[in-house]
Fold each of these.
Amino acid sequence: MEPATTDSHADAHEEHHEESFWRKYVFSQDHKMIGIQYGLTALVFMLLGFCLMLLMRWQLAYPGKPIPAIGGLFGADNAPGGIMLPEFYNQLGAMHGTIMVFMAVVPLLVGAFGNYVVPLQIGAPDMAFPKLNMASYWCFLPGGLLMASSFFLPGGAARSGWTSYPPLSVLEDGQTVWLFGMILLITSSLLGAVNFLVTIIQMRAPGLTWMRLPFFVWAQLVTSFLLLLAFPPLEAAGVLQLFDRLVDTSFFMPDGLVISGEMEDFRSGGGSPLLWQHLFWFLAHPEVYVLVLPAMGMVGEIIANNTRKPIWGYKSLVYSVVFLGFMSFIVWAHHMFMTGMGTVISAFFQTTTMIISIPSVIILTCLLLSLWGGSIRFNTPMLFALAFLPMFAIGGLTGLPLGLTASDIPLHDTYYVIGHFHYVVAPGTIFAIFAGIYYWYPKVTGRKMSELLGKLHFWPSLLFINGIFFPMLIQGMAGLSRRLYDGGLTYEFAKDVMVWNKMMTWSAFGLAVVQIFFIVNFFMSLKTGEKVGGNPWRATTLEWTDAPSPPIGHGNFPKIPTVFRPAYEYSAPGSDEDFTAQSQPQEA
Amino acid sequence: MSVVIPYNVDPNPETGLYNAKLGVWLFLASEVMLFGALFSTYILLRTAAPAWPTGSDILNVPVAFVNTLVLIASSVTMVMSWASLKLNDFAKYKLYMGITCLCALAFLGIKAYEYGTKFSHGDFPANSTFLGIYFVLTGLHMLHVIGGLIVNGYLWGPGSKMFQTEPDRFANRIEVAGLYWHFVDLVWIFLFPVLYLLPGAGVVAGGGH
Amino acid sequence: MSGHSPEEIRASVKVYMLVFGALAVGTVVTVLASYLDIPIGLAITLALLIAAVKASLVALFFMHLKGEVRTIMWTLMITALFFVVLIAVPLSGYADSLSIQWSSWGLGH
Amino acid sequence: MKDFLNLPPDWSAHGAPIDNLIALIHWVMLILFVGWGAYYILVLIKFRAGASPKADYHGAKGTISKYVEVAVVVFEVAILVAFAFPLWNERVAELPDENESERIRVVAEQFAWNFHYPGADGEWGRTAPELVDTAANPLGLDRDDPASADDIHTLNNLYLPVDKPIILYLTSKDVIHSLNLPYLRVKQDTIPGQTIPVHFVAKQTGESEVACAQLCGLTHYRMKGFLHIQSQQDYQSWHDERTQAAAAAAAAAGM
Ligand code: HEA
Ligand code: HEA
Ligand code: CUA
Ligand SMILES: [Cu+2]
């Protein structure tokens, strides 16, 4: 595509032969192409997770009413006459959670942004193991497709919640496919984690010392560590659950089970349902920090860039992220407070849960203080990044009452929990992802996305998303349980908070509508977006200053840069420009 | 076009490691957690059970004893094959690596025999949590042996051509494959006593079903 | 690490042989020890102890962990820590719940 | 101070401290959020590019943030030690005297609640999984055990006396459920293979609901029971009546 000089024409021609379409776009080993593959695939999965949610929200607001317009499409097994059946609702819930966490957000944060940006930010020509990188995508894609296809397989999709607690999950349909899908997704993440760690530890450009790393790279480093050590136990647990399902072992099945009046006497019994919960949450708690650390990293990048000043307290940020990563391995049982936990273990986990909130407070404080003294540009990426702060604060703060056993009694398994974590993952992480897409779009395509459409996307999204999730906190406080097919209609005790459901659902539809601005913007800007130079945001980090936008093919940098400065030298005293590239030599 | 990845062959002066070596150690760390979860399962199931069988009452200790020696031997020949390469003795390398692969095959053969007798006696994973965890642990370990055998077989056969062109890189590959192989051995060193030798407790009810 | 001189390699070959011997002996000893008529706690400790020694030999000498670089040592130490946590917590959770009976049936006195 | 939370009515003796804890945390959350929020809005206005064309390389000085962080730490330590630990200890470690309490087995199943009262003898009859019959004997009660003669079984209706310590022994026949008594601030998973005690005192009579709080399958959403908290006299007469009826039925079956 790039006009080649006559001199290199022969070269280019040869390359062209070597890099067939398949090698270049499908089985690519270039981290940038793999990043794009991850990004597009995960966005499609996110759209799917989003659509499943819309169906659920319809049912919650109008229980028993036929789904309008498209209700007939789901077949008599799922929605006869367009009216959703409980088994279908449970499938939607389990798959919405699974898809959003494992097939949309993690692949976006790590697979897409991590892959594309990290090697560029550290001045590396590619990831350390390009083939492994390709393999990791090619585990992710079949894993994801398998999961998504489970709706169409006999038996349907998994329906025991994304948490898949046995004995239920061992008994219900759809779970086998879920387990195989998870094993593929986990393998993909493990391969990716090894790759990221080696790349970041080994391949930083000369002069790029640890304390000069962009904060985003630190976040990815810690994230990879979490994936590396937390995922294997879930893989093991998945294998055990497969055994329980397929060959009737009893790892999670206790003695004396009587299912619908029938004794399970073909099993030996003797297993422990709680064992699954330990192994699951040993992954899933670190996983929730996987969902937020890279998001914090992106927000940090964008805030530094758009305040035109260094991030405040870079070192505390780095130490906090590392500490957060470490602590996230020892808080998992706070999801199990209501399983009959004794005083000693619960005291331990309450304490660690309170401790882990401290680094989050420090990170948020640093990001907030970074705003002070800035010269703040309110472009679209910055708006999303700024919104992340108070939204994450609501999500994080609502984690505190859940983290104490006593106050968790009324709140556990209510919509308060749903509200808590959606505030961190949706207007938190998803907003950070949007910020990242708007910010790095010019890097990938050489064009900016439209600011007007961006703002039309941002403001209503912010409004609607709060319209969905804030009422959840109110409903949960009144005791409304989660995972209810009829939204709680059966019960009297939470009657008066049910009125919110319609408003929440219409907010969700509103949210869907305004995503159209994003989708249009995303595709249209490929053609019509304003063409920009290498460094449209006037940023300091290597991906902008030392590589063209879009970057040259495989290899990234015309010449591997050398780094002389910290990551965020904005408005440095004595400099004429309001930014100084990391690779700009210090004057003698 | 190919990109030159730094520290693919020579160690990074800062860390003292080449990429693949760090990579395989990280991978092994994740493997530790994988088997750790299964050991955790073993311990919890055993603690919670009113009775637990003595391994040797159910499993064949002499056969597993031989298998342990086979695997240990393969570990030694693996490290010897690496040492031979470092001494530039390609013939010896071929010999030792060949023995390593044969040992792996022998291990798998013996294991298959063990499984076969178990199944023909009607001892299936569903019969007890002991047999369940036995089959999961040894089965997963067996998959690791098979994986190692494939890699080592490749490095013994077609892969060894690299020694002519890039001897250092090839020696690295052997070192990395060796790290993995020793880990597989190391896991077995725990599996053997834990599954086959540890004394049980209480009276195990019934003859299986 | 990979820059071993031939002399060093030859010296370590001797070590490998010694380790091989030790591992073989260790295997025999574990099996023999399992026939000892000792209390169960002691028997388990002994078997795991021998396994730990054997495993350390493999790790230290075959895997060259002896004198390995800091990055790897740290990684392994953190992994070991989480390994212990992963085993200890489910177990102590089990021990901590004193008022719980481990059966669904037959609460009758 | 806690009305703004709109928690469900509290009919239990132990609920007030829990509600107060929730209220306390929410007040602190609110203060933090409003404080930081005010700062946030102020900063966005004050340092917008239009008003502040040149950024200050050094940025914020001063140590207020340190104090806030330390204050958060102190608050969390205090709340753990002063409230969280003792409250939970009281919940799980201080079971009331069995002889002075009303003791009831709760056996959850897909999708119903079985309540098993020991009857006049204060002892449950033996139960066993192989005896379970969905319609005739959902508890799997051994009719040959003399202790079972006067046992009361109710389906989806939990009768409790007011002002008396109550111990529920929770278990499940099949999957994990969770006993949720919102008005009594009780929530506890029922786990097959385990029997977990929960204790409380109801301090007010009334009718309310028993909910299942853990996804347990298709009709999880309808796994509802009814809670009847009665005066001690009413409860006693209900109990006597049911005991006699049970004993009579057992005698009739024995003939
Ligand atoms: C990204 C995801 C994410 C993050 C970051 C968190 C963060 C936290 N979570 Fe959350 N959590 C989930 C995702 C997440 N969680 C999910 C998915 C579930 C449910 C799973 C399921 O059951 O399906 C869950 C459930 C969950 C539970 C179990 C509840 C139950 O089932 O009963 C608990 C209990 O302790 C908990 C606690 C916490 C705590 C203490 C934090 C802390 O780390 C939070 C610390 C942060 C703060 C304290 C904010 C600090 C900021 C400020 C003070 C600044 C204010 C600034 C402004 C106003 C601008 N979470
Ligand atoms: C990362 C995780 C994540 C994310 C992002 C979301 C996002 C959302 N979730 Fe979900 N949710 C979960 C994880 C997540 N959720 C989990 C784990 C559960 C528990 C499941 C269980 O019970 O087991 C759950 C459960 C859950 C429930 C409760 C169901 C129940 O208990 O019965 C509800 C109810 O309203 C809900 C709603 C929403 C809404 C309105 C959003 C919205 O905020 C969505 C916002 C998203 C966007 C704004 C994205 C828009 C982008 C696109 C559409 C892409 C564009 C595409 C291209 C360019 C191609 N979620
Ligand atoms: Cu029973 Cu939900
Ligand atoms: Cu958590």
Amino acid sequence: MAEPAITDEELPVIARFEVRRRSYLAPDGTILRRLPQFASDTSALLSLYRGMVLTRAFDTKAVSLQRTGRLGTYAVSLGQEAVSIGIASAMREEDVLLPSYRDNAALLWRGVKMEETLLYWGGDERGNHWSGPAHDFPFCIPVGSHAPHAAGVGYAFVLRKQPRVAVCLFGEGATSKGDVWEAMNFAGIYKLPVVFVANNNQWAISVPLKLQTASETLAQKAIAAGFIGEQVDGNDVIAMRAAAEEAIVEARAGKGPRFIEAVTYRLGDHTTADDAGRYRPPEEVQAHWKEEPIARLRSYLVSQNAWGKVEEERLAAECQQLIEVAIERYLATSPRPPETIFDHLYAELPAAYAAQRRELKDASHG
Amino acid sequence: MAEPAITDEELPVIARFEVRRRSYLAPDGTILRRLPQFASDTSALLSLYRGMVLTRAFDTKAVSLQRTGRLGTYAVSLGQEAVSIGIASAMREEDVLLPSYRDNAALLWRGVKMEETLLYWGGDERGNHWSGPAHDFPFCIPVGSHAPHAAGVGYAFVLRKQPRVAVCLFGEGATSKGDVWEAMNFAGIYKLPVVFVANNNQWAISVPLKLQTASETLAQKAIAAGFIGEQVDGNDVIAMRAAAEEAIVEARAGKGPRFIEAVTYRLGDHTTADDAGRYRPPEEVQAHWKEEPIARLRSYLVSQNAWGKVEEERLAAECQQLIEVAIERYLATSPRPPETIFDHLYAELPAAYAAQRRELKDASHG
Amino acid sequence: MAEVTLVEAVNLALARAMSDDPSVVVLGEDVGVNGGVFRATVGLQQRFGPQRVVDAPLAELLISGLCVGMAAQGLRPVGEIQFMGFIYPCIDQLVNHASRLRNRTQGRLSCPMVLRTPHGGGIRAPEHHSESTEVMLAHIPGLRVVIPSSPERAYGLLLAAIRDPDPVVFLEPTRIYRAAKGQVDDDGEALPLDVAFVLREGQDVTLISWGAMVRETLTAADELADDGIRAEVIDLATLKPYDENTVLASVQKTGRCVIVHEAARTGGFGAEVAALIAERGLTSLLAPVVRVTGYDTVMPLPRLEQHYIPSVSRITAAARRVCQFS
Amino acid sequence: MAEVTLVEAVNLALARAMSDDPSVVVLGEDVGVNGGVFRATVGLQQRFGPQRVVDAPLAELLISGLCVGMAAQGLRPVGEIQFMGFIYPCIDQLVNHASRLRNRTQGRLSCPMVLRTPHGGGIRAPEHHSESTEVMLAHIPGLRVVIPSSPERAYGLLLAAIRDPDPVVFLEPTRIYRAAKGQVDDDGEALPLDVAFVLREGQDVTLISWGAMVRETLTAADELADDGIRAEVIDLATLKPYDENTVLASVQKTGRCVIVHEAARTGGFGAEVAALIAERGLTSLLAPVVRVTGYDTVMPLPRLEQHYIPSVSRITAAARRVCQFS
Ligand SMILES: Cc1ncc(C[n+]2csc(CCOP(=O)(O)OP(=O)(O)O)c2C)c(N)n1
Ligand SMILES: Cc1ncc(C[n+]2csc(CCOP(=O)(O)OP(=O)(O)O)c2C)c(N)n1
Ligand SMILES: [Mg+2]
Ligand SMILES: [Mg+2]
């Protein structure tokens, strides 16, 4: 077949696109560029720091509960604390969070109690009937399937002219799902107030990013839906918060959806059911420990004389205390009666299933 | 919430992308830029012209068959003939075509007989057991659902080290389906020999492009999958063939997938079951008649003294003749025996269904 | 009281629901300016505006997923899937989210959505446009599955579906969209969502069906009457949950039962009804329970589809067989 | 002859099929380096290379669609869906393409693919990891649906599924992946795809089940034996198509039948089996056909899942009831 007469380069360019990257703190905590305004308020940074530390301490305890058979499968956010915390800290109470199974931190920040999170991962639906925002979505387990919900929520806000934003969190693996694609495309058409956040922790269980997609960045996937995608250093909580703030402010102002790629690394196993040693070298994990978000922000705070050994110890003790109380409450919660599995199936149990409920009640109490 | 301290513009750019547009002939048939090599061979252009004219004549007859109750729902390619013909003309016999319901022209070009096409749209599966390439896929009706098949076919070629290419055709509406997205993403990862072609005829039944996606071009959607997307003047068959040739040559050479957006216009109703008058103004259609591909190529050929009234009349007569013979053959084909609906369900009919087949046979012959 | 077709009754119910309740939103492919490929949503966008009558992009998974998100936010979305053959991408959203959101959150969130789609064949349409896979949905806990067989029931059941606090899949029998005509009083009266309709009383045999097949079943009952066989005809209408008592009561009376549906036989919803009878109506049975159904084949293209869809004669033959049984 | 677990038998069959036939390709999430989240594909990538053992991106629709394309090209793809709760995005490909490609082209193209997925609950897994919606697939003409209940049957049936010229959904009972052990001779011998297995002969009552529930059913049979009730136990094993004759022959002998499955009751595959008996085995029935199944609820999270899954005592109680019936 004849080679084409002209080369691509001779064809006129009709559209150009760019992807930018946001980061403020280097791995060692030094400043790369002028910090966003909120960062001048040390207390704001301290609360972000506290959120990340509490998350890591909570995760650690959750894992030991699982190891001792007192909790179900659990996914820690080790190394990715800045993603959930940075995003959650930029949201308003009335905004709607649509989290993935790895976003415990975001929900804790928004008011879900630790004992409630434990109850859910302990295998009890009541954990989702939480003290956090009543309109937030429960953890989404089928990867990416909550993205269309976020678009639906955003559409409801537009229809009711409410200045609210839907924030949807998922992993980089989710970007391979058509669900996310269809949702982003729709959000673009109607300029919906939706912020899509991909926690790019480099791994989908054992599948590395390069086997997940050939695109150099995840941020550029938003180009296909006609809106802005930004890459952010996901180990820099200041960058995460700033990116989230900007995206949420724009979305709230009716300027349409945004996509945030948070580049980070999954320092732990995928979940307690996984053994990452099977598929990735310890050296790789070691290398990434140098970039993790908590030490990074601590270095910065210390360099600002805003933090020290004393504060660190006080915070650690405070976290332990809170977590232990929560665990006690969780362990003290006895299972609900078996027949209650019928009670929230429909607003009102159809007569057709009443007999089954009775049978289960008798079986389990007899 | 505080405005971000820095603006997007201050953030470093980490990736840049461009979308180019290909066209050679202006609507009036004059040349816009140096033509691709194959175009210097007049006979090549004449066969493209013939293919488009035959397609339009065939479509016209098919519609009148439908109007008189002798054919089922049928989708013409009026105004889009250059897309199917341009693509098909750049393929080799051993390549695999995965067509949509609107790509009759591509299959005719590849050797499917007109009576076979009519048989299928006349409601008889035997129409898909055709004289064209045995490995080509049948018309895909669930929009976009054949894109993953194209990726699977391309993967088989790579696995077997065969220099073959899978070519998947669909409409712009299909680009909203996750199926297409997932398939493109996979093709990108494994650099599969697959060419994805979107016939952007501006309408998905009554849904206009602007309600289908917010992306300025469809070509840019390939950026999300990490490969090249090109926009082509879909009313310029020379551009379609050149774009297809380049994409197929590259794919065959192991350089990976390509995406082609063919910008054209659906001059007719969506199908014989549709009445476009309900949702779009006649002026819009009129305006687009000025750009349609057949008149455009004819003007060029005439300007080259390669075509004239005599040839036009001879061609028209030839087409009528071929079509009438095909229609006769089609109308002469009596339905298959009802019980044969069991015969290609499985390679061998499971015993469990033998009784049903007998029942149907008796019922229909009794 | 106007005489309307079934599809016009659907349109009336949609318009009524939208004017009664501003939280009702209609979305789907071509539902706006075009008024739907079957005209079910005609006039709605002009009347309620493009924000409440949304021409969705070509993505069924999205349509169902949007409904879940909207419903969780308190809207009452009514999604349209253009043909049942294109509903499969919605199954993940229906099974994993719509039907579970209430239970998953123990009542904190709920999903009052309706997904409408044309059901069944017989209109000489292309492949995938003639599906009747209702059982796949009727098996799902937390869902409701409804299918009317007349304009009156289409109107009353669709209103009920939209007002119901839980997700409902509403199947519309394509074959009788226009063929079925009836008096419909647009009074906003809904029908109950778990009561079967006894369309004709009889002592000798119970004929159970739903959707378009109800018409052939009624015709069969007429023919049987000519031979002195008094058939009771039940339109199940709501498949999930379904009205077990009406079925059992009828079979107790007649002792004989024929179940008619267009869907493939194996694992079709007719199996559920037959199983119910074998379990709780056995003692009253005087003859085997017979299913007259579509064959276990793919629905053939138009040239042969009439041979696939159960005919009146297949129904009467089955009824005679069970009546002669002893 | 080595004693292996059910999941090891799956692995043996996959390795055997891949070494026998270079056109066999395994694809799915984490099937490569990681060897599958249940270790079903462990060692395969090392042995057959990354081109034939493909770590797919996170997209189930894609995995099933790739299988269709590969199969149409003459490969024999074996796709893995990590848990049955994630198979729903594949249903469109299974219903609209895999099961129809042969019929649509009247034999010009075919689709010899296998889609494997873990089935059922009882392993204290998170939501969506404990599904048993086999009936949704068993209703589809053109598909085969298979579910083993022992290492031997897992090995022989999976080999048969891979060699079969048509699409097969292969369900693997998660709960007994490791609990079920047995002698498996890796001799490449396949088992037939439409023959049920009579695991235990008995005169008094027929117990029919499949997948993991076969174990509780066998235990129930033991307990019943202690009371002098001789139960015949049938592992249906292939649900689509299924072995009607073995079922009918057994019920003809015993006159009593209890069907056991984990899936929700309404419209479950147990309904199909009960309907078959009501239609063609009625005269031999001495008692109602009873279904012991999961409830018509969402599978609860781990804390309560044991109350959802049919227990041995529910099975024995049902069997006693039908045996006492007269
Ligand atoms: C649709 C779907 N398929 C498969 C799974 C099983 N699974 C759970 S998490 C996971 C990997 C997800 O990776 P990613 O999206 O990157 O998120 P991460 O876990 O890394 O945060 C998989 C395959 C699932 N939960 N949902
Ligand atoms: C999955 C799916 N949904 C809906 C339909 C009904 N339908 C047939 S063609 C069509 C519009 C397709 O538009 P486009 O992709 O632009 O292709 P075109 O018809 O314009 O060539 C629709 C909605 C379908 N065939 N498949
Ligand atoms: Mg990840
Ligand atoms: Mg189009």
